[in-house]
Every structure is written in C-alpha cells, then in structure tokens.
Amino acid sequence: MRATRSQVVAVVVTVALGVMLFAASYDAFRNLTASYEQTYDDLSFADLTVTGGDQPAFAAASARTPGVSAVHQRVQADVPTQVPRDDGTRHTMVGRLVGMPTDSQPSVNAVDVLTGDYLDPDDPTSVLVEKHMSDHFGLTPGDTLTVALSDGPTEVTVRGTVASPEYIWTAADRQSLFSLPDEFGVMFVAESLAQQAPAGSSLEQTLVLYGADADAVALDDTLTSAARDAGAADIVRQEDQASNAALSEDLAAFGELSFMFPALFLSGAGFATFIILNRLVASQRGQIGVLMASGMARRQVLRHYLGYGIVLGLSGAMIGLLLGIPVGALITSTYTRLLSIPDTVVNLYWVTPLVGLLFGLTMGVLSAWAPARAAVRIPPAQAMRGDVGAQDGGRASLPERILPALSRAPVRYRIGLRGIGRHRTRSAATVGGVALAIILVLVSWGMIDTVDRLMVKQFDVVSREDTQVYSAGPLDSATLDTIRETDGVAAAEPVLTLDVTLVTADDQYATRLQGFVDDTTMHGFVALDRSQIALPSQGVLVGQSTRDVLGLDAGDSVTLRVSSLGVEVDTEVVDFVDEPLGTYAYAEQLWLADALTAAGADAAALGSPAVTSAFVRYSDGADADATLRALQQQPDVAAAVSATALRDLFADYFTFFYVFLGIMLVLGGILAFALIFNMITATLAERAPELATMRASGVSASQVNRMMTVENLLLTLIGIPLGLVLGYLVAVGFMSSFS
C-alpha cells in the first residue's frame, strides 16, 4: 500500500466521499422527516379538511366517529389587502383571512407564535401574520394593514407573526404551489372578523384531527363518504394539502437522491479498487509464483489480497462517516431555515454508521474478491515466468488492418494502437473507467439541464404572458381597454377563472378552470406527445395527472362542479396537457360561459368574480419595469404580477436542489479525476517492466511518454461516446425519481 500510496489515497477518497454523501443525505432525510412530524404533532395539523356543504352536519358526524380526536370549524376568506411600503405607498395583494378563536389556540391547526402575542378577545381587529408574509414585507407587531370586508376597507393591526403547519410552504392551493409573496399572503384573525368577508369570497371549513392510534386510511374513507353526503365542495386529505404535498414531494425526491448518488459514487470507488487490485496482482505475479512454489497456501494469498479491499473500504467508510454525520446536521438546519420550518430535529441514527461501514466493507471485499481469486489460480511456474497474459500475439492492430496506410506510421504510434489489443481486459477497464467518469459528471449536469428546460417550457411555451393584471372589480370592456392602451402593452386578453371540482363516477379532483379566448396567444397547450394543440371549441383540456387520479381517457365524460355558482356542467375531456407546474383545466371562454348559463348560473355572476384578470404581453423593446408600474397605477387595477417574478420565485424554491446538485457535480468531477488517475497509474505500474526494457533498449523517456499518451488518449476517445450514452440513460433514471 505504501508503494502505491497515490492510488490508495485516490480509492480511500472515493469511498469516503460515497459514504459521506450517504451519511449526510440519509441523516438529513431522516432529520427533515422528523422535523416535519414534530411540527405537525406540536401544532395539531389537520388530517382532513372539508370545505362547503352542510358543515354543521358533517362536523357533528365527524365528532361522533371513533378515532377522531378533535373537530374544528372556521371561516376562510381571500380578500384584497393593502400592505404599507417603505416609500409611504400601499401595495395591494390577496390576503387570506383564516378564522381563529380568540380565547385560546384552536384544537386543530394551531399556530406557533414567533413574535408578539396571540389574538386577544378585547382586540377583534388584530391579526397574526404568517412568517413568509411578515418577512417579505418587514411587518412587525404594531404595523397596520387594510383589508376589504363586506362593510368596506377595514384597518387591522399586526399583533404577532406566526408559523403554521398549513403554510410551511406558502401555497394558496394545489394549483398554485408557487404563490408570489407580492400576490398572496396569510393572516390569522378572529373568527368574527373572518365572517365579515364579502359574500362569495369566504369558505366554511371543518378540520378533523385523528387520534394517535387511529386507522387513518379507514377514517379517510369513512369521513370522505360523510363529507360527500353532506354536499362538500372540496375534501382534502392531509397528504393532499397543498403545503404538505409540496414538502412531501420535495422530501421524497431528496430521499431518492440521497441513496442514488452515494450508490453511484460507491460504484465508482468499487470499480477503482477492483482495477487497482487487478493491476496489483498482475504486477506481482512473479512474487506470487515464488511464494506459492515455496509452500505458501492459497488461502494465505487469498487473505492477503482480500485484506487490501477490507482496509481500503473500512478506512474510507470511517472517514466518510466522521465527515458525513455533521454535514447531515448542517443540511438539516439549512433546509429548515430556508423553508421556515418551526422545528429542527437532529438525531444520531445507529443505522447510518452501520450501513456506512457495511457499504465500505462490502464494496472492498467484492472489489478485491475477483483479483484475489485470480491470484491464487495462477500456476506457480507460469507466474514465475512473468507471463502477463497478452491476448494478441503482436499482430497488426484492427485499425492497421482496416487502413493499411497506418502500418507505415511511426513505431511509437503503432505501439499505442497495438497496445490496445494486446491486453483487451486492461483496455476495457480503462474504457470503462472513462465511461464511468463521464457518468458521474453527466448525471448531475443532466438533472440541472432538465430543470432549466422545464422552466423554459413553463414560462416560454406554456405561460406566454408577461404579466397578470387583476382588476378591483369585474373586468369590463372599459377596464380592458385601459389596460390595452397602457404604454408598453402589445396585447391583453380577459381570462375567466373558476375553482372547480372534476367529478367522475368514482372520484373527484379539485382544481382551477381557466377560460381563454378561442385564439389566445397568452397560453400554449402542449399535448402528451409534446405537440402543440389548439383550445377546443367545446369540452375541456385537463392536466395529465388527472388520468391517474380520476382514471380518465380522452373522450370520457366529466362533470365540472362550480360551487361558487352552484351549478354543475357535464362535458367531455377532449385531451390532456403536459405542464410542469400545476394540473389545471382549460376551456374556450364563450363556450364555458354559455355552458354555465345553461346549467343555471346567473349570467351576471360570470363577470364577477370569475373574470377579474387579464393576461398581458408587452411590446417588443418595451421597458418591462416601467410597463408593470404603469399597469399597477391604473385606477381600476388592484394588482399586476410579473411573470418574471414568478419565474424568479420558482428558481428560489429550487435553490436547495441546485446547491445539492452543484455539490454532486463538484464531487463527481473529483471522483472522475480519481478514476482516470487510477486507471492510468495502475496501467503504468503494471507495465513498468515493459517500459524499463524499452528504456534499456535506447528508447528515450519522451518517446515512451508519447507512446503511452497515444494509447491512453485512444482508449479515452473510445470511452467518451460510451460514457455519453450511458450517462444520458442514468441521468434520465435519476431525473425520473425527482418530481
């Protein structure tokens, strides 16, 4: 080991990095899971949330159901809210008012008061601001906000800032997982204040908490059936709640990567150890032959070479564990801080060192087994002759036979060509090392490229608008004309937006339905085969996820339940769209309005609150910031949200993903270097007698250098295409685990 210390160090480093990544990522995964669970337990996160229908009847039925620990009823409303800015102006956004009891915390979905105090029954107009909103606007206790209630604008006072299990990931709903802080924020208010929200903007909800030992699956089924019988408009299980679903998907994807990357890196370490020991055995054939001819038992030789793998594997594993466990704690605290998770749980899991040591030991033994077996099978007489097992008796190489002109090339180049075929196993190992090195780099880079392309697809192909403009009231033709006449605006289209439930005979799915004009230029519809499709003249397009959720196929019938209008529309699923963000439904605006009217909806209601926004595209060369400010200053505009801001928010949420993959990319580059370094140095060590013979015959060191360089470069050129193909396939497999 001392004689080959550079290769030994490279192998130990690769094993240590692989085990370190496993320990850090696995511990972080377990810690994050424990942190979520701790927060959910401490704040009594609802197992089921039911909106609409006969709420008293459902609440009473839930309270009588065995296994139910607590039931809480509340009002939730989304209302226009004005937030003070540093320059003295006020910013208008959508504020969600969540009703809370003032005398004590609710029994379900309590909040963690971070600054200030909880609600006071003697102060009915005080509010608790959710942490993401308070951080974004710099709100502190004592600041005032203005909310639009049924009797007009009402000034409320910030009493404290809180964290909520419902909004660890600030999402308005499952279709708006990336809610802009300038557009959406959450406030917890007295129940009496929430009940003053304008008609049509408030929702009655019942929250149900299960007992610790209850059968959650059975209770979900029982209470879901009871909620449907009560005419509920929306039924959300804990696993489907917007914040929890986003966090669960993020955590599940991180959990997959926390195993796959260490496994990939440990494979590289095992391959490097295997090659080094193979070359070591080849270079020590003479010594092996002498020892065995002198009476050394085969099992002693076997133990000797297995010892290399055991020492290298365990040494690397112990170093990796010493580094990985504290790194896992650092990842946990960083992650919880970025997402404002109230609890940070860091534990030491006995399985981590156990699995890490087993990884190192198993990898070392397996990578050393074949070379060790090869060592004891060498007949002593053959070994003492120094037979290195050439597989091509000095014939012209395949390229020389294909291109006879190569036979007239200088000897140093022909030696390089013939060296490849002389030892096919050695050459194959070098090619494999190059391919594996490329895979290590390409996997991380491929995943980064994929996410970048998804962002391009969402914001350049699917969502083509530059800004979404929300009007203070119904978006009438006069307001739309004002928007279109704003400097820098090239086009503006009204968009009819409704919260709907897609209902089939067996299941239902709550989503958002958007009605566009028939020749819309603001939204692209991408089919599952990646082709562009037109908005149908009747029927709906739905997101691809509903195929699995509802078991739908193109041409199937579906019912659109619009609770805000009190109607249901039976229609057809025309096709499915493939979009990176959200699972929306789409329809042609005029057809949708006619269908809703025919189903009994008040035609006037389709103007408010449904059509309250317009999608806007800027003129070529327009100043985006100036145009956005001009739109925000229009008298009938409540808010204007830049698509660029949404794209930036999307990128911000992926900061942890990019950091993780960036680290994987750097470590992959280090391992790639170590692999190729090991391949080349092991080859040179094995061929030391051959090279010494050439030097003794008068070949200069520079000529030997060129011959070896030619051979290694040729093998590298063979390994690059193989690595690119395999790297692409492995990257596809890795990315498919990340949602």
Structure description:
The structure is a single chain. This protein is an alpha+beta fold and 739 residues long. It contains 21 helices and 21 strands. A six-stranded mixed beta barrel has the order 2-3-8-5-7-6. Strands 12-13-19-16-18-17 form a six-stranded mixed beta barrel. It has a two-stranded antiparallel ribbon with strand order 14-15. The longest helix has 42 residues. The relative contact order is 0.12. The model has no long low-confidence stretch (mean pLDDT 84).
Q: Which descriptors would you attach to this protein?
A:
739 residues, alpha+beta, 6-stranded mixed β-barrel, 6-stranded mixed barrel, 21 strands, elongated
List the helices and strands and how they pair.
Elements: H1 5-42, E1 48-51, H2 55-64, E2 68-84, E3 90-100, E4 112-116, E5 126-130, H3 131-137, E6 144-149, E7 152-163, E8 184-190, H4 191-194, E9 202-210, H5 216-229, E10 234-237, H6 242-283, H7 285-293, H8 298-338, H9 351-376, H10 380-385, H11 398-402, H12 411-422, H13 424-462, E11 467-471, H14 477-484, E12 489-503, E13 508-516, E14 525-526, E15 532-533, E16 540-543, H15 545-550, E17 557-562, E18 567-577, E19 585-588, H16 589-598, E20 613-618, H17 624-632, E21 637-642, H18 643-653, H19 655-686, H20 688-696, H21 701-736
